[in-house]
Each structure stands twice: as structure tokens, then as C-alpha cells.
What does this fold into?
Amino acid sequence: MAQGIPPGQSSKSDKVDPYRIGSRFISKQARIFPQALKEIQGGRKSSHWMWYIIPTPPYAPGGVERGSGTNREWALRDLPPNDLKGNDAARAFLYYPEEGGVNLRKNYYEIITAVGDQLEQGNDPVSLMGYLDDPKLRSSVRLFEFVTREDAEMEDVHAACLRVLTLLKEDVMPPAASKSKAAPAGKVVEGKEEEQGTEEALEKEAGATVDGGVSSALAEKMEELRVEAGRKGKEL
It folds into this structure.
């Protein structure tokens, strides 16, 4: 079960809403979401609403937070000492109870679906979102794709995010790799280390083995890796 604010609880206290989801997003979305959705469905974002409608984790390249004060204020930020990440805050965003007619999970799903529709029709992501907000879109859908992977209650959100990442031609880290020390999604690692990391991830994903050996499904995938390595003149 994803962590977050259980449906039905009040958002009036920081103890219940430690990520300030209600105080930051509800009133903004009540006013802005219809216009934001209309713009995306029309093929071009033309006003300023990205932070409130398609939120992102903190922008912290190399472990150092950067970006504007506005970006920092609206980031989906986990509690210290993990305040440069946004996984728990993103789950809390999706599970925040409907308030004042605003359903954050529904709104996020609708606008990401609309983004996917535009991309599928051939609309260029920079033309759709703008030069500055194209990276924010990628960051947001990557975060929400990650936190909804194993959450049966969020399958629609996960599918919408995965569709957009695919249309954006973004690499998506396999679930097992995301739990290992493999390179983060989007980072290209040259040569043998990348292949070894993938094989290690597959082993973790397979979990239990048969009679102390490798499962047949895993064996097939590992063989595919070895064949691919051979094509590159390398050896696993």
C-alpha cells in the first residue's frame, strides 16, 4: 500500500498533512486546473501553472538543490533527512482526500492523459509545454511513474505516466533496478558495467530460484544479455 494521507482524514494539521499538500495545492487547483487542462487539450500551454498542476520533486543535481525560490516552495519534498527527494510527498499528493471539489489524483491523471493525447498526435513536447516546462514535465511523470509502480489503487496514474515517458522517449528504469545501485533512469552508462548492472537487476527481480539455480525466465533474459554483449564484442 502506498504511503500518504489516508482518505477521509482532515488536512488542517501539519501532523496530518506534513507535506503541506492541502495548503499549497487545493486552492490553486480549484482556480487554475480547468484553464490548464483546456490549454493542454488545445495543444499549447500558454499561462503559468506548472508548479501547481504538474508538480516535481526538488531539483537537486549532484545532491545540491538548485532552481528558483518558487520551484523550491512548490516542490514535492520528503521530510528530512530525505528532503531532496519527493517519493513520499508524491504519494501523499495522490492520496490527499478530495477537498472543496478538488481531487488531486483525478486532476493529475486527467492532465497527464491530455499530455499523452497531444504527444500521440505528434505535438512536439517543447511546443506543447514550453522550453522551460518540458524538463519539469519529464521530472514529474518520472516521479509519479516510480511511486505508483506497485500500487494497485494507482494503476491508471501509473499507466498514464508510463505512456507519456514512452512517447517522450525517456528511458524507464526496471522496477528491480530502481531498488539496486544501478544507474538512475535517463543516465547512459557505457559498456560492460551497464550490462552487468542490468543482469544483477534481473536476478533481484526474479527473486526465488529453482533448486538453487536460476529460473527459466531469468535464464532466457540473461542469455539475451550475453548475446547482445557478444554483438558488441564484450563478454559478461
Summary: The radius of gyration is 20 Å. Residues 1-12, 180-223, 232-236 have pLDDT under 50 and may be disordered.
